[in-house]
Predict the structure.
Amino acid sequence: MHNFTPTAIQLVDYYDDGEHARHFNFRLLAEPEAASQGIAHHWQHVKAGQFFMLCVPSVGEAPFTFTQAPDETGHFRALVRRMGSVTSALFELEAGQILGARGPFGKGWPMNGIADKRVLVVGGGCGLAPLVSVVNQLIDQQNYTQLTVVYGARNRMVQMLNPERERWQHIIPVYNMIEDGTTNGDDNEYIGTPVDIMPTVLNSFGELPEVALLAGPEAMMYSMAEYLVAFGLSDHSIYLSIERRMHCAVGTCGHCYLKNKYACTDGPTFRWDELQQYMVQGTG
Ligand SMILES: Cc1cc2nc3c(=O)[nH]c(=O)nc-3n(C[C@H](O)[C@H](O)[C@H](O)COP(=O)(O)OP(=O)(O)OC[C@H]3O[C@@H](n4cnc5c(N)ncnc54)[C@H](O)[C@@H]3O)c2cc1C
Ligand code: FES
């Protein structure tokens, strides 16, 4: 039996980033009987790319990726874009409010297959959120051969995760793509989409990337995956994080059904060759 009872969490603080998007810092509140033992075991081992269900009392639940997994004090972060009922209610809350969270859910990124590899990371818009923890982990543990981030946004106003990208660009190549040309003249800003800059990026690798991680609008991810395969990458080496409507997050309600797979339990990260099979008669 699955336990659908949320764990109590506290909204610690937040800051705005981009248009209609906000970083939230939450804290898991220890159950009274477990207070002396700190946070529950299952929250201590969150993997990059996993997600949680955020419960806003009297409103509902919605899935969000951890941009920072819970630390030993139970603090964790998520970047949330304001969309509808749950997210709008969340944006009205002040620090100190108590909410709920269920999780962690999903498979996350294949970290064992990424370590010590040539890694290409491509995020679009809010889709960079599921990639933040994997980039931070690779950088902090220095376990990559080569690592490059490409980030696409419609215009400068909607760019998100500016502090993270600024930190990364001191350490690894970061290409910031702006579609409408509202660039600031910064060295690592370019006009166009992530696909437009790919010839430059791939040539900078010397040898082709061994792993590509993609997250963002599905049209962007699919055209990027097709481009990378045409350029010579194996479709076994490309992973995508996909979003579907989710209710239970544990594979019972069927809302996130793909062909013979559930995005909540079998994903949300999928290998490109496998995802193409699941999408044949799926809901995507
Ligand atoms: C695994 C997973 C991880 C996610 N991580 C993040 C994250 O880190 N940050 C973030 O901002 N968002 C993330 N999302 C999307 C987020 O869950 C939705 O934006 C949220 O559910 C909207 O809830 P709402 O009640 O505010 O909007 P609703 O009132 O439910 O919907 C508002 C509008 O958004 C559309 N919508 C809602 N959910 C989805 C969805 N999953 N896919 C496509 N369209 C949708 C609806 O069709 C409607 O048009 C993630 C989704 C999934 C499945
Ligand atoms: S959200 Fe219910 S089966 Fe995936």
